[in-house]
Amino acid sequence: MKNIKTLNKSTYAKKSVNAGCGECQASCQSACKTSCTVANQKCEKKSKK
Amino acid sequence: MDSASGAVHVLSPLAASVLRQMASLPLPPAKQPPEGYSEEKAECWDELYSLYENGMLFSDDIDTENASYASGFIKSICLHISHDCNMRCRYCFAGTGDFHRGRQLMDLETGKNAIDFLLRESGPIKNLELDFFGGEPLLNFDVVKELVRYGREKEAPLKKNIRFTITTNGALLDDDSIAFINEHMSNAVLSVDGRREVNDLNRPFEDGSGSYDTIIPKFKQLIKDRTADWYVRGTYTRDNLDFAEDVLSLNAEGFDQISVEPVVLPDDNPMALREEDLSIIEAEYERLAKVMVERYREGRPFTFFHFMIDLDAGPCVYKRLKGCGCGAEYVAITPGGDIYPCHQFVEYPEYKMGNVNDGSVDRIAQKNFMRCAIVRNDECKRCWAKYFCGGGCPANNYGFNRDIEKPYKLGCDIERKRVECALMIKAAEAEIDSEREDS
User: Nearest 10 degrees: CA dihedral of B88, B165, B319, B247?
Assistant: First the structure.
C-alpha cells in the first residue's frame, strides 16, 4: 500500500492451533520484580520455531 | 493500532487525516469514499477500507463474554526462600524483608514440599516456573542450590521443565553463587536503581551506607559470561521522576538489558507516585523512547523491558484475556509454606490460600482469581490497551481500592503510555530498516 504500512505479519486475533495451551511464562505486573506484562511476552510455541 | 485485532499500521499524514474522517462517520465504513474526495484522499480511503475488509481496522472485539476461565493449574511459584534482607530499601514492599512478621528463612523440607506442590498442581502443563525471591534469596543460598537439584530430580519422570529464576540485590554474590546462577537460572533479575546517588539513597545497607559500589562490579561479573536472560532492574519514585537518566546511567555502566519500574506505595508515602505526576512520567517515557530510537539508528541499541513488544509472536488471545494469573496459575510461598496469590499479596494475611506443608488450597479463593481479568470490569473492557496489559495488577487494585477488580488508575495510565511508546518504537525501527534497505 502506498499510504499505509502494517507492521505485523500476524495478529493475536488470528486463531492458533496451540491457542490457550497454558505453557507460556506467567506474567506479572507488580513493581517489585521484573514485571512481565502480557505485552512483553512471547508465545511458548511460536518462540520454539 | 486496531485494538481488537492487534494490527499496527503506520499511516502517512494524509491517510491519518482520512482515518480520522472515517472514524467520525457511522461504522462500519462505507466502501465508497465520501463525495468530493481528491484522488489522493480516495486512494487512502480505499487502502483503509481494505484493512477493514481484512479484519485489521474497526474489527469486531473478541467475544469475551464467553471467555473461559483461566485454568486452575498452578504452574508458576514465587518462592520466598528468605524473609530477611541485608538491605533496607526505603520503598520495600516487604517491610525491609520480613513482611512485618519476623525474619525467617525457608527450611529445605518446606522448599521440597513447595516443589512437590508445583509438580502436582500443574497438571498437564510442562513448562513451569520457580522464582527464588524474598527478602534476599542469597541469605539462604544453600537451600536454593539443594532445591534446584531436587527439582531437576523430580521433574524428570514427569517430563516437566522447571525454569528456575532468581531476583537478588547482589550484595552477597561471589564466584560460587555467580557460577551456580549462570548455570541453573534461566533468568536473573539484578536489583539496582540507576544513578549512584539515587541507588544509594533508596537502597542502603543495614548500616545506612550505599550499595552501588558493592553491587555494580558483582553484576558486571555475573553478566560477563552469562548466556541466559538477565535484567538489571530498578525502581523509580517521586524523588526521581527523571528516571530516563537512571536507565541511561545503567546503560553507560555497560548494561543493555534494563528495567526501571514505577514504585508502588500507599498514597501517604512521600515517595509514592501521584496522579499529578502523570504528565511528567508520560513525558519521561516518551523521552526515553526517542533516545532508544536514536540508539537503534546509531547501531547501539539497548533493551528497556517495558518497551519490549512482539507484534507477531506475542501471546495468544487466551493468555491476553487472563493477564497475570495470580491466585490461579501463579502463587507465592512464604518461608513457613503459606500460599498467597502472589508475592504482593503476602502483605495481606487475609489472602492466605493454604500451606504447602499440608497441601491445603482454598479452591474457592482460587476460582475467584480465575475469572479472566479483562472481563471483570468495564474500565478494562473499554481500554484500547487491554490485550497488551492483560488486566492490570489485582494486588495493586486491592492495595489502592480494597477491591481486586477495581483498577488502580495511575497504573493503567502508566501502562497505556508504555504500550504506546513500545508501538512507536516498532514503527520508528521499521522506518529505519526501510531506509537502510533503500540505501
Answer: 50
Give the helix ranges, DSSP H, for B104-190: 108-121, 141-155, 175-184
Quick one: pLDDT at residue A34? 47
The residue ranking higher by pLDDT, B362 or B395, is B362
Is A22's CB within 8 Å of B388's CB? Answer: no
**Lowest mean pLDDT across B126-130, B234-238, B401-405:** B401-405
H-helix or E-strand spanning residue B363: helix B363-370
Going from the C-alpha of B370 to that of each of A26, B306, B325, B329, B400, the distances in angstroms are 13, 25, 7, 8, 21
Q: Classify residue B64 by burial, with Cβ atoms within 10 Å: 0-12, 13-18, 19+.
A: middle
Interchain CB distance below 8 Å, A6 and B56: yes
pLDDT of residue B374: 76
Nearest to B356 by CA among B335, B370, B327: B335
A interface with B, Cβ–Cβ < 8 A, is: 1-13, 16, 18-20, 22-35, 37-44, 46-47
End-to-end CA distance of chain A: 29
Residue from B119, B7, B121 nearest B53 by CA: B7
What residue in B sits closest to A46 (Cα-Cα)?
B313
When pLDDT is cut at 50, 70 and 90, the band that residue A15 belongs to is low
The model's pLDDT over B239-257, given as tens digits with 9 standing for 90+, comes to 999 999 999 999 999 999 9
pLDDT value of position A23: 80
At B190, give phi and psi (nearest 5°): -110, 115
For B366-405, the DSSP string reads HHHHHS-TGGG-HHHHH-TTHHHH-S--HHHHHHHHS-TT
Judged against a pLDDT cut of 90, whether residue B323 lies above it is answered with no
pLDDT at residue B213, rounded to an integer? 98
The distance of Cα B425 from the centroid of its chain, to the nearest Å, equals: 18
The partner residue sitting opposite B73, judged by closest CB among A12, A22, A37, is: A22
Distance from CA of A33 to the nearest CA of B (A): 7
Cell of B106: 525457608
What's the mean per-residue pLDDT of chain B?
A: 92
Checking if the pLDDT of B376 tops 80, the result is no
Q: What is the ipTM of this complex?
A: 0.83
Q: Compute the radius of gyration of chain A from its Cα atoms.
A: 14
Query: Would the CA dihedral through B430, A43, B130, B403 be positive or negative?
Result: positive
Cis check: omega of the bond before B135, within 30 degrees of 0 = yes
Q: What is the pLDDT of residue A37?
A: 67
Under DSSP, is residue B112 helix (H, G, I), strand (E, B) or coil?
helix
**C-alpha count within 13 angstroms, C-beta hemisphere, residue B352:** 10
